[in-house]
Sequence to fold (368 residues):
Amino acid sequence: MIIKRIDTLINTISQSPYWEIKITIILFLLIQLVSFPSYNLEYDNWSDQYEKSSNIFSNIDRASGLSHKAKINVRITVPIIIKILNLSPFGLIILKNITGIIFIFLILKTFLIIIHDKYLSILLTISCAFVGFGKASTIDPSQIFDGLSLMLVLCSFLLKNPFLIIICLLAGFFNDERTIISAFLFTLYYFQFNNQLKINNKYPFLAFVGLILFIISRAYMQLKLNMDAPIDGVGLTTFLSQINSISIGYFMFLEGFWIIVLLSVYLGWDTNKKNPLFLLTIASFLIGSLSSFLVFDHGRSLIYSFPIIFFGLSYIKPLVDYQKLKKIIIATLISSILIPTISFGGKSSYWSHYSFPFQIIRMITDKY
Fold:
């Protein structure tokens, strides 16, 4: 009965005006319900970003090249936003949630472009609400802004204006250089599926221009402004020290979406095994995702390979009928709901995320 009512509600909303906005708001609230952060409005919780906002083009004091603060030294997107908008910690929390809302909306639009069905697009977007990359903007209450990078790179892929595309890419690259992984996967996606999707924004060329501008800018910052870009803790030693985390890290990265990704390889192998772009996509995904384990926070790094879900859908869609596609998507949704979102880092570190009801209990018991 409940399932039928939810099904009816989805169908009703999908046929109503501004349905994308309604679904986006509902799913944003759903994300808050299932994963509500322990927000901290003290400036100390955001101190690295504020210190950098006062010294955007100079080095900030840091204790170790292994620290997150050391990496912020050249990740200047959020400090620039703080400087321009004069944001307080509450303002940064609002920024995180706004990027989360936009990302949900863009994910929904992308699914709709690929499968041309409102109902199935909504089911897929609901699935994202239960997976780490889908709620990256909200699950971390501290000064990490991975969700901003994911939103910017997806926005760059869907935009038409070349200037705005490059701005989004540069902002994403300067927020976290791992955004390059996402941009490269979207470039491969464009080469393979643009004839079907009709995006036609010259994304590969603009992504290349954005990357060149980023490299030139980073070189200038390091060589002329003497801004350090430490890579301590990055390399084969780190990879080998946490090699036992690879299997669980991979599994928790996509959760239920592995059904779509693995099934696309299985169903599409016979027709695409001689397609160089198909093989390059598999190789790029494996190399890009495995490289995530060269750093301690491999759980964060893995989410930048999220565009692989769009490849999976695009490979599957021509090979199955509507009913089978619907069953695959429902299986993805159920699996994503049942598998808890757990973040991993290092050899054995992990952390789960409280739901809103549990956070209420923690507030009452003074454990928040």
